[in-house]
Design brief:
Layout lengths: L2 H24 L10 H19 L11 H19 L1 H16 L6 E3 L6 E3 H16 L2 H15 L10 H41 L5 H20 L3 H22 L2
Antiparallel strand pairs: 1-2
């Protein structure tokens, strides 16, 4: 094997591994702190050698001075797709925080094993259910297939960091708030209506112990609405996962 062939092989391994590493750090499930670093590293190595025979021939040789920018570009491409596809989980965290405060659980905090931060109990519940749906629908395989196909239409060294690429990531992050409110909408609407009704009752009859009954009524009503809407979650989140994956692929095309 000639030196140029060796350099091309080493370059192919490095660029593929760097793009996969960016994905593994920021993608849902794979980027979770609960997953051991050794497992992530093993997945990157295994996927790199699986993809090398397919995409390796399309990767050329690069000068030593080109490597820093090339590595940075490949890492940002993988990280960009991971951030884009993590949109649903970020929105779920926000929805859980909103609902937790509305239902009176703002002081009940737990350590979320996925993010290793203290969040409300409702945020942990929401994220746990959505993670189970994520695994049940095999979305992790959709994600791996998408990053594998990205090497075909966006070979290493070809992608750029033009304005459209970071702008697409910023727009994706900006969608988190709106999507979080949509996920929380049923329980949020019910608790807001309860606040309005209790406020009117308090004006009509000051003798009612609404300060004591209000939190209990909101909590009970929120739980009932949440249980009633759980049956619609699989279809809802399947659409959201598909949309987030399409958004990640679109962002990769913007880097082309």
């Amino acid at each position: 094997m000639t030196s140029s062939a060796i350099n091309a092989t080493i370059g192919g391994i490095l660029t593929i591994a760097v793009r996969l590493s960016g994905l593994m750090l920021f993608a849902p499930f794979f980027g979770s702190p609960a997953m051991p670093a050794r497992v992530k590293a093993g997945l990157v190595v295994a996927l790199t050698f699986l993809l090398l025979p397919v995409v390796g021939p399309g990767i050329g040789s690069y000068a030593l001075t080109d490597w820093p920018l090339l590595v940075l570009r490949e890492f940002l491409i993988g990280a960009g797709m991971g951030i884009a596809t993590n949109l649903v989980f970020d929105a779920v965290d926000m929805a859980g925080q909103i609902i937790g405060m509305q239902m009176g659980y703002s002081l009940v905090n737990l350590l979320d094993p996925q993010t290793e931060v203290n969040v409300t109990v409702m945020a942990v519940f929401y994220r746990s259910i959505v993670l189970l749906l994520f695994l049940m629908m095999n979305v992790q395989y959709w994600l791996l297939r998408a990053i594998g196909e990205s090497f075909l239409y966006l070979p290493p060294g070809v992608g750029g960091l033009r304005g459209a690429f970071p702008l697409g990531i910023v727009k994706t992050v900006g969608m988190v708030f709106g999507l979080g409110v949509q996920i929380a909408a049923p329980v949020l609407a019910a608790t807001l209506v309860t606040d309005l009704v209790l406020g009117l009752l308090g004006k009509a009859s000051a003798q009612l112990p609404l300060m004591l009954l209000g939190p209990a009524i909101k909590s009970l009503l929120g739980v009932v609405i949440l249980i009633a809407t759980l049956r619609y979650w699989p279809g809802l989140f399947q659409r959201l996962f598909e949309r987030s994956l399409e958004n990640g692929v679109r962002i990769l095309h913007l880097a082309g």
